[in-house]
Write a structure and sequence with these properties.
Helix 1 packs antiparallel against helix 2 (155-173). The chain is built from two helices and eleven strands, in the order H-E-E-E-E-E-E-E-E-E-E-E-H. The radius of gyration is 23 Å and the shape is elongated. The chain starts with a helix and ends with a helix. It is 21% helix and 49% strand. It folds into two domains: 1-19 and 154-174; 24-152. It has helices spanning 2-18, 155-173, and strands at 27-36, 39-49, 53-57, 60-63, 68-71, 74-75, 83-89, 97-106, 111-118, 121-128, 133-149. By secondary structure, the chain is an alpha+beta fold.
Length: 174
């Protein structure tokens, strides 16, 4: 009887922790690189949670919010007035963004940034927000290195559960 109860309990715990969670979706991150006077430098990066996207057609998905977005040393928090569109092929995440468009404002500094990228290349505008003066224009901007991370929050719990099961099994054999 104890073995049956133990087996059922172990099965319940295993099924509880092995269910995929909403946090286990891939996170697509891509660098933004700009050229200035013949020199290329990393301007920032943008990350989107694939689970927060919607299907446009076939395998092309679109995200209208970012998980993290930094550009020229500014870390942006998404606001109501921010425009953000990132399209990607769900079947080939390592290809990165097929299309990226943003129009964001850093309220603390008063700097506004606009950018459009299509299949890896594009441009970025930098404005002084109070008087909407164009401060910089990077006509040679590129989407750089792509990384795809898949968080696994239940891994440690599953390992501890397996270790507990092995300890009980060893105790029952002795």
């Amino acid at each position: 009887m104890k073995k049956i109860v133990f087996t059922l309990m172990l099965f319940c715990f295993a099924s509880l922790y092995s269910q995929p969670s909403a946090h286990a979706a891939p996170i697509l991150t891509q660098d933004i690189i700009v050229e200035d006077d013949g020199m290329f430098f990393l301007a920032g990066s943008v990350s989107v949670n694939v689970a927060d996207s919607f299907e446009l057609f076939d395998s092309v998905f679109s995200a209208d919010s970012w998980l993290s977005f930094d550009l020229f040393g500014f870390q942006f928090e998404q606001g109501m007035d921010d425009l953000f569109v990132a399209d990607f092929d769900i079947d080939n995440l390592m290809a990165g963004f097929e299309f990226l468009q943003f129009d964001v404002l850093d309220l603390d500094s008063g700097w506004a940034f606009q950018g459009i990228f299509s299949f890896g290349s594009g441009f970025i505008d930098v404005f002084s927000a109070p008087n909407e003066t164009l401060v910089a224009f990077f006509e040679n901007a590129f989407l750089g290195e792509v990384s795809v991370a898949v968080p696994a929050p239940a891994t440690i719990s599953l390992m501890l559960l397996a270790l507990f099961g092995l300890m009980l099994r060893q105790r029952a054999i002795s």
